[in-house]
């Protein structure tokens, strides 16, 4: 197959006339990634299956208008300033109280109603002979969505050898703040229009998870997965136990929980987080990360009202998300790993998504 290539094209304009571009990253083994400057959105990931034919394995829309109007599920988006939920939209830092927008009542979700997923990012191509890539940059002003400090953010998307997409995040601040960045791609390894993902087999490198209350806020407990429907320490079909009578599954309408990943190996290496296989197509996704947690969401609230790029309505559980991150509500949970960033410190986070085919 051909070598690595990176190029950009106009994708459309927002209502205020702001131009949005789409960057295409083409790999050396048949993989293609498309990234929008609007929301840092991964619009498509095309990878071959067992039959050698590529298919788009991420949920999303065909055009910009749908993203600007209908992306309530955060398809493919770069999430910030704070991925996941903060209880009541409130937290305190250094004795100061901060109020965030409550856009997922009664909580704040994914940075508020106008988070990083709705910003237009500056883009620079960073491809070379061994990779295709784009770097996105955005400066979030002090007070945006209620968060303190001016936050300067870069996100690098790089497609490298072996059909691996790597996302590296970097951020600095001029005042104490909290930061938790992630990517919110929904995957369906059978193809984005293929329907429910219940037969996908999932393994998580997590012996514990963080149970929630009825509003999806962690209780503070770190509970073992053993003996529960949350035990994916060995592979299980996503749909095998999803409708079990279990209070936690009832709260989330399925899986919508943070899993506590095993300790990373150190030395800058990324720790394995998840492996998912679609038996029908043979496609396999392996995720590794520097983050302490991963939010597994089984697409429970997709309701058939949104039509994807392939022309098919996305019904419940049409895709799954594996959001590498710090834990939800960490600013209000002192026992959780800290998400505080101070001047002079550098926030760094990395995640890889490697695609292959099973035998």
Helix/strand class: mainly beta
Helical content class: under 10%
Alpha-carbon Rg, integer: 19 Å
Low-confidence stretches: none
Number of strands: 28
Please provide the ordered H/E string of secondary-structure elements: EEEEEHEEEEEEEEEEEEEEEEHEEEEEEE
Mean pLDDT: 96
Number of helices, counting only DSSP H or I runs of 4 residues or more: 2
Describe this structure in words.
With 359 residues, the chain is mainly β. The protein has a single domain (5-357), classed as Beta-galactosidase, Chain A, domain 5. Helices cover 4% and strands 40% of the residues. It has a 9-stranded antiparallel β-sheet, with no helix packed on it. Strands 17-26-25-22-19-20 form a 6-stranded antiparallel β-sheet, with no helix packed on it. It is globular, with a radius of gyration of 19 Å.
Brief digest:
The chain has a single domain (5-357), classed as Distorted Sandwich (Beta-galactosidase, Chain A, domain 5). It contains two helices and 28 strands.
Which secondary structure elements does this structure contain, and how are they paired or packed?
Elements: E1 5-13, E2 19-26, E3 32-36, E4 42-48, E5 54-56, H1 64-70, E6 77-79, E7 85-86, E8 90-93, E9 96-99, E10 108-109, E11 122-125, E12 132-140, E13 151-160, E14 164-173, E15 177-178, E16 182-184, E17 186-187, E18 201-204, E19 206-210, E20 223-224, E21 236-237, H2 247-252, E22 256-261, E23 271-277, E24 283-289, E25 293-297, E26 320-325, E27 340-341, E28 347-357
Antiparallel strand pairs: 1-2, 2-3, 3-4, 4-5, 6-16, 7-10, 8-9, 11-12, 12-13, 13-14, 14-28, 15-27, 17-26, 18-21, 18-23, 19-20, 19-22, 22-25, 23-24, 24-28, 25-26
């Amino acid at each position: 197959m051909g070598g690595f290539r990176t190029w950009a094209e106009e994708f459309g304009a927002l209502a205020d006339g702001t131009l949005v571009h789409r960057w295409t990253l083409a790999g050396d083994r048949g993989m293609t990634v498309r990234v929008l400057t609007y929301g840092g959105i991964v619009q498509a990931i095309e990878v071959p299956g067992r039959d050698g034919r590529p298919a788009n394995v991420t949920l999303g829309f065909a055009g910009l208008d749908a993203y600007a109007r209908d992306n309530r599920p955060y398809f493919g988006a770069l999430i910030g300033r704070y991925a996941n939920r903060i209880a009541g939209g409130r937290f305190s830092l250094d004795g100061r109280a901060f109020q965030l927008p409550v856009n997922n009542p009664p909580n704040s979700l994914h940075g508020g109603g106008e988070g990083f997923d709705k910003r237009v990012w500056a883009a620079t191509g960073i491809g070379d002979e061994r990779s295709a890539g784009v770097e996105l940059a955005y400066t979030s002003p002090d007070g945006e969505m209620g968060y303190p400090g001016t936050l300067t953010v870069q996100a690098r998307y790089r497609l490298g050898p072996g059909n691996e997409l790597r996302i590296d995040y970097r951020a600095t601040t001029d005042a104490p703040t909290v930061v938790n960045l992630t990517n919110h791609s929904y995957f369906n390894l059978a193809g984005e229009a293929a329907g429910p993902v219940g037969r996908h087999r999932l393994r998580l490198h997590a012996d514990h998870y963080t149970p929630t209350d009825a509003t999806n806020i962690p209780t503070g407990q770190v509970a073992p997965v053993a003996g529960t429907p949350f035990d994916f320490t060995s592979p299980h079909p996503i749909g095998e136990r999803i409708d079990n009578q279990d209070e936690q599954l009832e709260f989330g309408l399925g899986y919508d929980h943070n899993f506590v990943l095993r300790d990373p190996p150190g030395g800058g290496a990324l720790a394995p987080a998840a492996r998912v296989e679609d038996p029908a197509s043979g496609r396999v996704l392996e995720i590794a990360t520097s983050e302490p947690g991963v939010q597994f969401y089984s697409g429970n609230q997709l309701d058939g009202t949104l039509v994807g790029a392939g022309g098919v309505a996305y019904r419940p559980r049409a895709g799954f998300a594996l959001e590498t991150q710090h834990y939800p509500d960490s600013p209000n949970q002192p026992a959780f790993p800290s998400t505080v960033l101070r001047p002079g410190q550098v926030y760094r986070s990395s995640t890889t998504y490697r695609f292959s085919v099973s035998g």
